[in-house]
User: What shape does this take?
Amino acid sequence: MKDDIIREIYDTLVDRKENPIDSYTSELMQDSHKKAEDKILEKLGEEATEVILASKNNEDLVHESADLIFFTLLNLAYKGIPLDDVFDELIQRHN
Assistant: This one.
C-alpha cells in the first residue's frame, strides 16, 4: 500500500539517528543536541510556510506537503516519539 511509505521513511530516519551514515538527515540529527533541534525546527517552520504559500498560489502544493510531512517525521524520529502515537491520536480523533 502507498501509505506504508510513511512508516518506511520514519523507520529509515530512526535508523539514521541510531546508526549514522553519510547523509543529510544523519548529519542533521547528530549535531549537538540544541543545534540539531534548532535546525529541525527551522526546517519545519520553513516547510510549513512553503505549504501555506503553495496553497495560496496553487503551485507545488504536493511537493511542499511532502517536504512538510518528511520533516515532521524527522522531528518525531529525532524526539524519539513512536509513529504509532501519531496514528493512535489520528484514530482517536477520527472516531
